[in-house]
Amino acid sequence: MIPAGFEYHRPADIASAIALLQQHGDEARVIAGGHSLIPMMKLRMADLSHLVDLQGISGLSGITIGEGSVSIGAMTTQNALITDAALAEAVPILREAALQIADPQVRYLGTVGGNVANGDPGNDMPGLMQCLDATYTLVGPDGERQVAARDFYEAAYFTAREDEEILTAITIPIPAAKGYAYVKQKRKIGDYATAAAAVLLGEGFASVAMTNLADTPVHSDAASAALAEGDVEGCVREALQAIDPQEDMRGPIAFKKHVAGVILRRAITKAQERAA
Amino acid sequence: MKDEITPEDRVANLKGMGSSRKRVEDVRFTQGKGNYVDDIKLDGMLFGDFVRSPYAHARVKSVNKEAALAVPGVLAVLTAEDLEPLGLHWMPTLAGDKQMVLADGKVLFQGQEVAYVVATDRYAAADGVEAVVVEYEELPVVVDPFKALEPDAPILREDIKDRTEGAHGPVRHNNHIFTWEQGDKDATEAALAEADVVAEEMIYYHRTHPCPLETCGCVASMDKVTGKLTLWGTFQAPHAIRTVVSLISGIAEHNIRVISPDIGGGFGNKVGAYAGYVCSVVASIVTGKPVKWVEDRMENLMSTAFARDYWMKGRIAATKEGKITGLWCHTTADHGGFDACADPTKFPAGFMNICTGSYDIPTAYLAVDGVYTNKAPGGVAYRCSFRVTEAAYFIERMIEVLAIKLNMDAAELRRINFIRKDQFPYQSALGWEYDSGDYHTAWEKALDAVGYDALRAEQAQRLEDFKAGKTRKLIGIGLTHFTEIVGAGPVKNCDILGLGMFDSCEIRIHPTGSAIARLGTISQGQGHATTFAQIIASEIGLPADDITLEEGDTDTAPYGLGTYGSRSTPVAGAATAMAARKIRAKAQMIAAYLLEVHDDDVEWDVDRFAVKGAPERFKTMKEIAFAAYNQAIPGLEPGLEAVSYYDPPNMTYPFGAYICVMEIDVDTGETEVRSFYALDDCGTRINPMIIDGQIHGGATEGYAIAMGQEIAYDEMGNNKSATLMDFFLPTAWETPTYTTDFTVTPSPHHPIGAKGVGESPNVGSVPCFSNAVHDAFRPFGLVQSHMPHDHWRIWKIARDLGLHG
Predict the structure, then answer these.
(1) Residue-level pLDDT at B565
(2) Known catalytic membership, residue B383
(3) Which of A103, B187, B512, B539 shows the smallest number of beta carbons within 10 Å?
């Protein structure tokens, strides 16, 4: 659990950070809260020579509630998501999910940007962002572009982000739907989900996504459409079609598929109660 | 002279036995001022780190050090070849086997030590490890102990192949370590044949790991000028380590000083000797500099001593009324690649022969076969006394299995089979003499406390609701009545590597009436500095707050066998009382002289000797201490100190009654412990608050073990649970709430009647949690399902019983 040597950089602005990424290519990585990257470095599973710390760059954190949407800076901590009253009012599912991430110590340092950008299928925020139809702002040498969360994840740890790009912000449309729930089964505090489901539910509208049940988060249009029509069984059936869980210490595939259905149903019930 | 304070106040001021005195250790621990091995920093200190095998079974073709030696800061890379001329490439285990210090031609488990890199800083050592190139040739892997005994199984231990005799008698296969038999086989088989009812079941107690908060480590410092080796380490038995280091290194014992500083939990994990200690000592001798080695969490979970891994096939015979007539057990014990169990020499399966439990079972037979597999070595007593947890789990499951067979309430079945109070001292069918007990009283108290009948009624209602589709949750009621055997032990039958398992205490009273006491044990969180001072306080009438306790430095503490197996209070605690009584005996003579009466004319009264019939004429212990040093007393040497080496006449037999109520979600396999009641009888209670703390801690470990904690391997021998993501350690969130209670049945042979308590909650809670899970599914036909009862395994029980529709 001792990392290999690396150069530490602390640029003062995004342009300098991107220049470092351009200079060092795939030997460089940006670090936000570090709660995924540092353990990987300690295990020597992440082999990199240059660490570009984003903490010195101003303007990367903060929550802005706008007209119809919320903007969250990439360096905003999970804890800030939990403690922001206006955000809890506008997008309550964010707080509900953030409270189920890891433990308080991790949430004080872990950032929402790091959580969504890392591409770890175990992370809770990517599925939630797909459910919310969020958009990520990526800044690179050629300027800024927007990528939908639903288009961002390609495989475990592989995303639409280019090596020289930095994810700087997340934009979330404020849901009109009153029903919401993030339900997660885990073995203990600090664990990734055995199965987790994010559900938004409103008048003639629904959005359903699931976490840690495939090598990417799973948002299912078919499941969402079925639920929008009030077809709970159809929704669950479609969602289970879309997932592809793997066996691990949490249990075999048949178990995961079964609890995925149970957890999704529970999330739907909770969302229905809140929508009513 | 008139005393102003009342006798009650004088007792209270001592904070002696029975007082919930606050832990004196916590002043430093809660301020982050503890001094652990990794806190030790010496001038010029070097750092060691291991190259470990990624394979569970492989030949080591070559080890290339070149690139590692080129890493800046790397000074040396040790391999078995380097240690061989010193005879240190293998080391003896505590179980009569030997174990490779560094891979000698092959590796037998994933994570085994292959090379030891020494560098000027910790980072350079890790870089050096990365740079060592090892060429392996994979060999067939055996992780199943039953397959290991098949005729064509691969030979794991080529160093001892084709032997017919092992350390514990004949062996019948290259992967067979020993067969240990106890009891009367023929009589037991006859009892089984003649019984109205026989229940038979395989009970598996899975492999787990003590996983102390602080991992294992040491700092070795060879002073080439004085020729003296100082070894700081996470040792549960510092004196035994000193003797072992002397025996295997050839360094004279007086030139070795072993120091156990503060230890962050041991639970059996820190009893044995590890390759890191040997390599660090060698590296310090070679370089002349101190060398520190501290393993990380993955190394701790992958390579240091595991616990359990017992496959226990049981048969239990009874009359149709439920009176047990015989118990039969055959255990297949998976010991991993080397037999490194920490058991008394004559007990290769520890005290597994306590497996008749709390019950009056007239005839019994136990056989244990030890087996080599491609897993890490160990088999230590994880917060238990030498396989007592396995024994307790076995019998408490077998009782439940028999209750199912008899269609009887398991509480009632226990009640009719308990050893009665009037049967103590009780001779068990497997050879033990239980010292004291009152099981019926404890059992009734426990059942009353939880409202057992009402709980069963609620459970029955829940079952009806479940069947009617009104709920998806079942209630399980877990019952356990356990009996431990702790306090090893009488030197006549208990030794480790020939070292008798007595223990010791030395007490020095200072002239002003304070004291220092030193013991052969070592606290790893048990609070010895608090509780042993309380024993002394009550015995000699000096306030516990005025008594310093020291352990763990072999240059100053008297020789003892250390702390594990709940032996500190039964053995060292007894030595403490005996040493204190020697002091009191001398104090009596001094008091009599000062009071100008005959020795027999004074009597002890809390903190003083008073003239019989004239309580106003007295000398306090404080006054006596001053006189002991400063007044010439005819016929008496000056000073006031004593040492006692205590060889216990018998073990002690703590017991307890635990009841758990658990809610079980049949769809997700999630569980919630609604209540957990723990009644413990540890004899005389020294510090009730510390006892409660022990119960909470041990029951939480038991909860972890029963409900999720395991060391799991795949078919290739890869350890699948080497991080705390997958190895379950409960946080405050998962930890149940406990209700503690007690009865007091003192040990008749212990000077203060204390029996030890540290391990009771681990021994008793594991079957209790497990029985709760089983009990919930009993109405649907579940008889046995192996631990750990994590979500998916509980889900599987429900699925296999058709409860998912």
Answers:
(1) 82
(2) yes
(3) B512
Contacts of A103 in chain B (CB under 8 A): 731
DSSP annotation of B652 reads B
Q: What is d(CA B450, CA B433) in angstroms, rounded to the nearest whole number?
A: 31
Query: What class does CATH assign to A63-173?
Result: alpha beta
Asked if A188 lies within 8 A of B297 by C-beta distance, the reply is no
Report the residue from B125, B126, B728 with minimal CB separation from A187: B728
Contact A251 B792 (CB under 8 A): yes
**Residue B125 φ then ψ, to 5°:** -60, -45
CATH number among 3.40.50.1100, 3.30.2160.10, 3.30.43.10, 3.40.50.300, domain A7-56: 3.30.43.10
Taking only the tens place, the pLDDT of each residue in B268-293 is: 999 989 999 999 999 999 999 999 99
- All CATH 3.30.465.10 domain ranges of chain A, comma separated, are 63-173
Residue A273 has pLDDT above 70, yes or no: yes
Could you say which DSSP state residue A27 is in? G
Indicate the average pLDDT of chain A: 96
A-chain residues near B720 (CB < 8 A)? 249
- Indicate the residue of B125, B667, B792 with minimum beta-carbon distance to A262: B667
A263/B130 touch (CB, cutoff 8 Å), yes or no: no
B796 touches chain A (CB under 8 A): yes
pLDDT value for B3: 56
Question: Could B731 and A189 be called an inter-chain contact, meaning their C-beta atoms sit closer than 8 Å?
Answer: yes
Domain A179-275 CATH assignment equals 3.30.390.50: yes
B12-21 pLDDT, tens per residue? Answer: 999 999 999 9
CB A121: neighbour CB atoms within 10 A? 23
pLDDT in the model for residue B2: 52
Give span(s): CATH 3.30.390.50, chain A: 179-275
Give B492's contacts (C-beta < 8 A, 6+ positions apart).
none
Span B90-109, pLDDT tens digits: 999 989 999 999 999 999 99
| Residues paired with B231 in a beta bridge | B220, B258
Q: What are phi and psi of A262, to 5 degrees?
A: -65, -45
